[in-house]
Structures are given as structure tokens and as C-alpha cells.
Amino acid sequence: MDRDELAAWLRLTLSEGVGNESARRLLAAFGLPQAIFSQSLAALEQVVSAPQAAQLLADPEGLAPLLETTWAWLQGQDETGQRRIITLGDPAYPASLLATEDPPLLLYMMGQALDAHALSRCVAIVGSRNPTPQGEANAQQFAKALAGAGLTVVSGMALGVDGAAHRGALEGAAAGQLATIAVVGTGLDRVYPKRHLALAHAIARQGVIVSEYPLGTPPLAPNFPKRNRIIAGLGAGTLVVEAALQSGSLITARMAVEQGKDVFAIPGSIHSPQSRGCHLLLKQGAKLVESAQDVLEELRLDSPAMPAAQMEPSSAEATANTARHAPLLRVLGFDPVGLDALVARTGMDAATLQAHLLELELEGHVGRLPGGLFQRSASA
User: How much is the pTM?
Assistant: First the structure.
């Protein structure tokens, strides 16, 4: 788009009191934003309320500096890939988002180009920002397997499950494949959380980062539940790995259901708060999955044959050292357990037991949870 067209779109999004729904009515009535702003007050009042019409005829605060910043950002090019803005009605706008109740007016994008084939083969993976070690491993392995089958993994670049899903997708995708889409709740001139800076650069090199928010938008709390509708809208289905009962992941799952999409959930321990959201989804009709192949079969997406190690992400051959710890692993079970209970089960003294647990933790066979609890990983 040229500078004048960009200015008109930004003015529409910044007009106070004019939300997406009113803006879509205006676009349907008058066409491009430039045409909206050439209308009289009386003409605008035929489509929106009088206060909204008055706001449309006033210059929004901050428009000029935002235009300068955005235009300069669009001209920039670095290791983060292409920068572009796709507007509602643009031929490149994702068709799956057009079918949702509230498609964004603008999509800011940074990274690789989106194509119709990749957009038709997306699956969303979401979950807790504070997953168990096994939950984080599941997210990464499912994403790796699905990307290896040619799918694009969509998530929100948050800590925990989101980050693991993006990393797994980048690991599993073939060269040249659109591995993953990160839908964020800030402007694309900043990375949140900051510790995901390297991950954001990796996503931009083999995927794309998407936001509906103008440059300079900070990580405001209301933005993150709102962006979940885009995550659900892009995915042909949504996989919830771990989630508490009060969780943004359940919001994404609800939005997917409202859009007529499949929802999948991985079951977990009945004692883990991070599994209760998944169990609630399963009670409500979500599809229980134990492997990436389960997701592929439900979505009926053609894919190349997947290696057995990818089909069962949580299975691995026991190492000789793991076999040495087999008695301890047996009494650990797969539910979280405290040190005192393990002392009682094994008969070991606390110091010896802690040494064995540390060794298993360093090998990735045991995870340490909040509250002094330990949990065996499924790979052990």
C-alpha cells in the first residue's frame, strides 16, 4: 500500500469509539478508508452513531507519529524477514479469519510469506504458561511431529507451552516449509516476553509473527485473550496440552468451538491443577489424543508417513542408566509426589533419595514441580 492508504487505515483503527464491527460496516458502505473520510457527517451517521461519525471526522491523537513509525518499519529489512500489513479485503488476507465473527482490520506481519496451501494446513497448540516438565515436552514433541507431517503450528509465543510448540515446529519442519505462526499481543516492534527474543528471530526466519496491534503497543493484559480468536481462527483445530481451569487456553478452545473447529486435549494426572482444564474440555466433548497421528486422523489432513518416534512423542527407549533407576521410577509413578512420600515408599534416606532424583532430573526423566513435588516423565 502507498503512504496515503496506510494513513487512512491507521486513522480508521485509531478513531476513538469506532471498533472493528463499526469499521466493517463503514468499509461495506463506502469502500476503502480514504472514501470513508471523504464523506459528510450526515452520510456517516447513516452507518454509525452520531458520536462515532464525529470522531471519524477528527484527526486521532497520535496519528502522525504512528504513520511515520509504521512507514519506516515497512521499509526496513533485516534478519527478521519481510514486513508487511495485510488489510481486510486484501486477496492475501487469510480466508479462515474472514470466516470468523470478528476478523481484524489489519494484520501486521513479519517473516515469511503466507500462502493458501500453508494456511489450509494449520493447527493451533496452546496451553499453560507454567506447564509441568512433561507438559512442556509433550507440546514440543507434538509440534515437531505435526510440522514433520507438513502442518504449520500456530501459537501465541508465550512462556511455557506456546514457546515449546514453536520450538518443536521449527525443529520438525522441512527446509522451506512455513513451520509456525506466532500471534502476539503487542506491536511487532517489540518482543514479549523478552526472553523469547531469539525464538522470535527464529520464527521470523522460518515462519511468521502476526499482530493486529499497531507498532508501539505494549503487552497490555486485555490484548492477549483478544488475540486468541486469531489463533483459533487460523487453526483447522486447536490442541490444548495443559491448562488450569482459569486459563486463556480454555478461551482459545471455546473460540475454536464457536468457529466450528475441532478441539483436542491431552489428558493428565487427576492430581495436577494443570490438567484440570484439559479434563474439563474432554468432559465437554473435546477429542482425547495421545499422539500427533490422532490429530492428523481427526483433521483428515493428508501427510507423509510419520516415523514411529514422531507418532508417539512421549515414548523413547530406556537407557541403561534409566534401567538402573527402574525401582525408583516404579514407585514414583506418573503423578506428582513429595519427598516424604518417596522416602516412605522406597525406604531410602532423604539424602540418598535426593541424589538419585537429581540424577534423573538432569537426564530429563524426572521433573521438579512447585511445592517440592517430583513427577516422572513419560520418556522414563
Answer: 0.83
Q: Which residue has the cell 516424604?
A: 340
Residue 334 pLDDT class (50, 70, 90 cuts): confident
Q: 292-299 and 133-148 helices cross at what angle (nearest 10)? A: 50
- Cell 537426564: give the residue: 363
Which pairs count as long-range contacts for 86-95, CB under 8 Å and 24+ apart, including other chains? 87/1, 87/9, 88/24, 88/27, 89/27, 94/119, 94/233, 94/234, 95/119
Which residue do the cell numbers 483478544 mark?
Answer: 226
Q: Express each pLDDT in 8-41 by its tens digit.
A: 999 999 999 999 999 999 999 999 999 999 999 9
* Cell 512447585 sits on residue: 370
Instruction: Please state, for a pLDDT cut of 90, what percent of the chain lies above it.
Output: 71
Q: How much is the CA Rg of the chain, to the nearest whole Å?
A: 24
Predicted confidence (pLDDT) per residue in 282-295, tens digit:
999 999 999 999 99
Residue 282 C-alpha cell reads as 474432554
What residues does 211 pair with on adjacent strands? 108
Chain segment 214-227, per-residue pLDDT in tens: 999 999 999 999 99
Residue 82: CB atoms within 10 Å: 13
